[in-house]
């Protein structure tokens, strides 16, 4: 029998090509393309009084210049609001090119198309824009004060106010033996993929067909937007996503202005046209996330059991809301983590500011929620003088309580119902990994050396595999090779490996014979996208189902050819055999037989020799069949599945400089059945690195006028290899999900979610002073020390 691939640590097939520099990214497409450059607003808030482009039109090598006044039809309308919500009463989106007003530094105003990027950028300098400056609203406190408005028709800068509850939290808190209040803050940050945004388009006038290559997380979404905005039929637009140098959420918006403007330019000019974002553009015109302020009230008993929890928070979504309320909705629901909090009430305001838009960044609202809940658990433990792990344990949902319904609505519009998990077992694992029960001995030993150390713990639950669907097409070639297509995109997750493992197991073929294509609307025109840790659950399940269909057909055809019963057949290494006999037929030959225009075979070699018309006693194609050996299916889940995990970190805080050094980092993770443990661990490693960045380094620093002060890698701090843990201890717990055929859950965002919470706890444990805001730098920790000493 072939080796079972599901659960095996198979080396990623993508890596050899990519590490050798043979990747093919958007900027590598169409080297003959014209280049674009975008004029962006230098002001956070201003009216556009006039735009003079006359000087640009005379520049040799410039082919076109567009402003809003040059846009027509649907292109002149605002960009789509992708995810409406009943509570989003004042949703606003920008135009592809600014109309009348700009609302953040970096907003697109004009597009120039020229022979090369240098010429296009030089031409931008010839455009004269007259502005009337308006007061800027920067930061949550300024938005809440509402002394200035981002949009004149949005009262109080409030785009949405949402409230959910389960039970009477206020009454439960009031009657609880103990009560606490906390104010907690996470600052604005952003994802920084190695490859920025990029789009190339080519128009074929003979076929009236548009081809678009774009660095996106949702090729089918871009396709739909381009077709709608340019007035084309969906079938006239192909969107191909080549290699993507990182996404992390920022490339999920569809469309970006450039993803419309570049195809428009290609269509109008009859030439291939390209846009490649530079790093400063990524800082000031893509998307940010994270910024939230939380006020927590909690009531609890003598054991630390939460009886009532009330959370009020304010979310900064920037100047527009193209992605709706997904981030704060996730925060408000995933905040609960692995706990059952008695009565729960949450309310948030999503606020406009004159800053870059907010869309999901890896973790997507969960790091904020985890920070709030875990800081609350630590505060309860401190108030009662109890062990922090023990307080968590008394609040856990127990293994026999699944499925567990929180009585809330999740981001996908379905009930917030956890499907499976074992949180007590996970806690025991993580405690053992960091020697939790003997940490005080370690602390004392370090103190004797004049060093200060602390231990932090953070638990989380992650909703994964959100719908509505993904599909897959599996085609067995006459060579025996298997070609698989799924519509979501890849940006480093190892899809070509993990999905091939699923197919190899289901079809009984060699792993090496499976080829995976993602993100190409020519192969799979209907899909959703890669985000929210959904690829393995959604496309993995669809691929499994499609492979199952292909296998059923293969066995049916082979049974006829081998004159055997289907139940007596097996497929091993791509050969269909009658169990216990020498009677067999290669799967490639079965693919030949699946075509009614059949081949004749030489019985000895099984090689095709000539065409024949098949069996005259049978219809060419049965009514319930079709030519070819392939399977196609879609998977749509009843609701999200919920992965979980716990992270623990030991840090040393330098007594003199307040620098924070990681001594140990441990992770226990549960994503159900593992397809490829090595890939999951790679995802965790990458997530932990981003968690370190979010906890200790990454911060978007705006001044009062809305200027981003650190819009370069010289000023925006990120962890290097010297700042991330040298080694991460990882252990897995597998509680299968009952919601999909593979029993799997997502893993893509697991590593980053508890980072800020774990580091805050560890630093607080080391310093013995409250940590209520993240990220925290050495200078901030030093200032906290001084303030704490002065308050004594």
From TrEMBL:
Keywords: Molybdenum, Oxidoreductase. Its EC number is 1.2.5.3. This is Aerobic carbon-monoxide dehydrogenase large subunit. The gene is cutA. It comes from the Bacteria. Residues 20-135 form the Aldehyde oxidase/xanthine dehydrogenase a/b hammerhead domain. GO terms for molecular function: carbon-monoxide oxygenase activity. InterPro entries: Ald_Oxase/Xan_DH_a/b (IPR000674), Ald_Oxase/Xan_DH_a/b_sf (IPR036856), Ald_Oxase/xanthine_DH-like (IPR016208), AldOxase/xan_DH_MoCoBD1 (IPR008274), AldOxase/xan_DH_MoCoBD2 (IPR046867), AldOxase/xan_DH_Mopterin-bd_sf (IPR037165). Residues 610-629 are annotated as: Disordered.
């Amino acid at each position: 029998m072939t080796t079972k691939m599901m659960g095996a640590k198979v080396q990623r097939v993508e890596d050899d090509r990519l590490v050798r520099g043979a990747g093919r990214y958007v900027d590598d497409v169409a080297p003959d393309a014209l280049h674009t450059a975008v004029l962006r607003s230098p002001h956070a808030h201003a009216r556009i009084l006039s735009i003079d482009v006359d000087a640009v039109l005379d520049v040799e090598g410039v082919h076109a210049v567009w402003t809003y006044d040059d846009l027509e039809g649907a292109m002149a309308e605002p960009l789509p609001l992708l995810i409406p919500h009943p509570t989003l009463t004042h949703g606003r989106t920008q135009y592809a090119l600014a109309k009348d007003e700009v609302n953040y530094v970096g907003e697109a105003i004009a597009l120039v198309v020229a022979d090369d990027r240098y010429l296009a950028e030089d031409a931008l300098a010839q455009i004269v824009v007259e502005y009337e400056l308006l007061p800027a609203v920067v930061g949550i406190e300024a938005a809440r004060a509402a002394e200035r408005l981002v949009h004149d028709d949005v009262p109080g800068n409030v785009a949405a106010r949402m409230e959910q509850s389960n039970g009477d939290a206020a009454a439960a808190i009031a009657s609880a033996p103990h009560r606490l209040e906390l104010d907690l803050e996470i600052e604005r940050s952003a994802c920084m993929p190695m490859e920025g945004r990029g789009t190339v388009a080519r128009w074929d006038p003979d076929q009236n067909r548009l081809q678009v290559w774009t660095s996106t997380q949702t090729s089918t979404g871009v396709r739909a937007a381009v077709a709608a905005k340019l007035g084309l039929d969906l079938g006239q637009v192909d969107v191909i996503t080549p290699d993507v140098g990182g996404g992390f959420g920022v490339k999920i918006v569809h469309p970006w202005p450039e993803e419309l403007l570049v195809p428009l330019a290609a269509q109008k000019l009859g030439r291939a046209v390209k846009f490649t974002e530079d790093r400063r553009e990524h800082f000031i015109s893509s998307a940010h996330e994270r910024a939230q302020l939380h006020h927590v009230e909690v009531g609890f008993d003598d054991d630390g059991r939460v009886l009532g929890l009330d959370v009020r928070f304010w979310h900064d979504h920037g100047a527009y809301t193209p992605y709706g309320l997904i981030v704060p909705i996730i925060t408000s629901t995933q905040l609960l983590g692995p706990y059952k909090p008695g009565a729960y009430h949450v309310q948030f305001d999503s606020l406009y500011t004159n800053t870059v838009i907010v869309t999901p960044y890896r973790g997507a609202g969960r790091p904020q929620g985890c920070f709030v809940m875990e800081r609350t658990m630590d505060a309860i433990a401190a108030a009662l003088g109890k062990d922090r792990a023990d307080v968590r344990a008394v609040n856990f949902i127990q293994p026999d309580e699944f499925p567990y319904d929180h009585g809330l609505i999740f981001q996908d519009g379905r009930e917030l119902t956890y499907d499976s998990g074992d949180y007590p077992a996970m806690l025991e694992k993580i405690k053992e990994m960091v020697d939790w029960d003997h940490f005080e001995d370690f602390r004392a030993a370090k103190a004797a050396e004049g060093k200060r150390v602390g231990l932090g713990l953070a638990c989380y639950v992650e909703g994964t595999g959100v719908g509505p669907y993904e599909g897959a097409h599996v085609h067995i070639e006459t060579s025996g090779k298997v070609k698989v297509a799924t519509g979501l995109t890849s940006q480093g997750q190892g899809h070509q490996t993990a999905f091939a493992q699923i197919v190899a197991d289901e079809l009984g073929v060699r792993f090496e014979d499976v080829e995976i294509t993602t993100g190409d609307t020519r192969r799979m025109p209907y899909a959703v996208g890669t985000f929210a840790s959904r690829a393995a659950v959604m496309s993995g399940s669809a691929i499994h189902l499609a492979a199952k269909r292909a296998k059923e057909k293969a066995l049916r055809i082979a049974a006829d050819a081998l004159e055997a019963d289907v139940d007596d057949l097996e497929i091993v290494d791509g050969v269909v055999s009658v169990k216990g006999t020498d009677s067999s037929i290669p799967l490639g030959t079965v693919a030949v037989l699946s075509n009614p225009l059949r081949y004749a075979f030489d019985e000895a070699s099984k090689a095709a020799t000539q065409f024949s018309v098949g069996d005259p006693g049978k219809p060419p194609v049965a009514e319930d069949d079709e030519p070819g050996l392939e399977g196609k299916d879609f998977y749509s889940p009843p609701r999200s599945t919920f992965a979980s995990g716990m992270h623990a970190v030991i840090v040393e805080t330098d007594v003199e400089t307040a620098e924070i050094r990681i001594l140990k980092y441990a992770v226990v993770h549960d994503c159900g059945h593992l397809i490829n443990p090595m890939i999951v661990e790679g995802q965790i490693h990458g997530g932990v690195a981003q968690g370190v960045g979010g906890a200790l380094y990454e911060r978007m620093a705006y001044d009062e006028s809305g200027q981003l002060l650190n819009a370069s890698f010289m000023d925006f701090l990120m962890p290097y290899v010297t700042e991330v843990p040298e080694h991460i201890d990882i252990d897995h717990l597998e509680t299968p999900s009952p919601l999909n055929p593979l029993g799997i859950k997502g893993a893509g965002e697991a590593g980053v979610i508890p980072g800020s919470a774990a580091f805050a706890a560890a630093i607080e444990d080391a310093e013995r002073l409250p940590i209520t805001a993240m990220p925290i730098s050495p200078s901030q920790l030093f200032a906290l020390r001084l303030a704490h000493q002065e308050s004594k």
